[in-house]
Every structure is written in structure tokens, then in C-alpha cells.
Design brief:
This protein has helices spanning about 1-25, 50-55, 60, 95-105, 120-125, 135-150, 165. Helix 2 (about 50-55) crosses helix 6, helix 4 packs across helix 6 (about 135-150) and helix 5 crosses helix 6. The chain has one domain. The chain has 7 helices and no strands. The chain has about 170 residues and is mostly helical.
């Protein structure tokens, strides 16, 4: 319990407070964007750096490379997972929809274990710049894409050779 009070809670608060400075750097443009000639729809008003969001919100627990070895990992009840193995554990296919739901956290997943990870969907929604669902989705999408870029390159699971093929 002392670890929770002395390490994890202050780290979580630090991450939330740092979101204020992140929001200040990532403000929407002053003028509304022009509609795309191809689609007739306006492009998103905000773009977020998945790498910067990861460093700000995820690296303290998951580590800079997403291996589950962040500075707070050893103080947690359950170590954070290695985020570079999503594709490897899913037959070589990165499960972006599942990763989105895990990061968002507002819809608990059956069999996903405890709720040790913050509910980032709510945290982003409460941040100064994240009051819309569109902004929350843009941040989570940026994180999901960044985590996809971290996947081990040889993520395709190769079945072991059978005895018939090795004789």
C-alpha cells in the first residue's frame, strides 16, 4: 500500500499534470480547416504525436521501448505487459481495435484482468484540450498507431516444423 501512495499515485498525477503542458503545445489551429476537394469533408482539426503521447502517458510503466520495463514497473502489483508482442500473440496481425479499447479503458474487456492501467479515455476527455470525443479518439488513435510501429518485426508466428517435414 505504501508503494501505491508513494510511487504510483504521484506518477499518475504527474502524467495528468504533464497533459496540461502537452495540451498547450498541441492546440488546434485558429482557423477552421478547408474541406478536402476529394471528399468534401474537413480534415481533423487536431493531430497528436503518438510518440510524444506514449512518452508522456505510457513510458513510466511500459518503458520507452514498450517492453514493460518502465521505472514504475517493479513497484506494481502486476508488471505491465510487453507492448511489442501484440502482433506476435495474434498470429502476426496487430489487433488495433483491441489495443484502442485497452487504451481507452472506458469499456472494460472481459478477461483483460484488473484495472491497473489508468482509464485514458476519461483522462483525455477531462484534459483542457480533450473535451470532445473526436479529440479523445485522435489521441488514442495516435497511441495505437505508435504502439503498432513498436511491434517486433518478426511478429509472424511460425508453427514448429513437424516430424514428417524434418525426416
Amino acid at each position: 500500500m505504501r508503494i501505491l501512495v508513494k510511487v504510483i499515485i504521484p506518477a499518475f498525477l504527474l502524467a495528468l499534470l504533464s497533459s496540461l503542458s502537452l495540451d498547450a503545445r498541441q492546440t488546434p489551429s485558429e482557423q477552421p480547416p478547408a474541406a478536402s476537394p476529394q471528399t468534401g469533408q474537413a480534415p481533423p482539426t487536431q493531430t497528436f504525436s503518438g510518440s510524444e503521447l506514449f512518452r508522456t502517458y505510457c513510458a513510466a510503466c511500459h518503458g520507452k521501448a514498450g517492453l514493460g520495463d518502465g521505472p514504475l514497473a517493479e513497484h506494481m502489483k502486476q508488471r505491465p505487459p510487453d507492448l511489442t508482442l501484440f502482433a506476435a500473440k495474434n498470429g502476426g496481425v496487430y489487433p488495433s481495435a483491441l489495443v484502442f479499447r485497452i487504451v481507452d479503458g472506458r469499456q472494460p474487456l472481459a478477461g483483460h484482468g484488473g484495472r491497473d492501467m489508468p482509464v485514458w479515455g476519461d483522462a483525455f476527455k477531462r484534459s483542457r484540450d480533450g473535451s470532445t470525443e473526436e479529440s479523445v479518439k485522435a489521441r488514442i488513435d495516435a497511441l495505437v498507431e505508435h504502439i503498432e510501429s513498436m511491434q517486433q518485426k518478426n511478429a509472424q508466428m511460425n508453427p514448429p516444423a513437424s516430424d514428417a517435414t524434418t525426416r
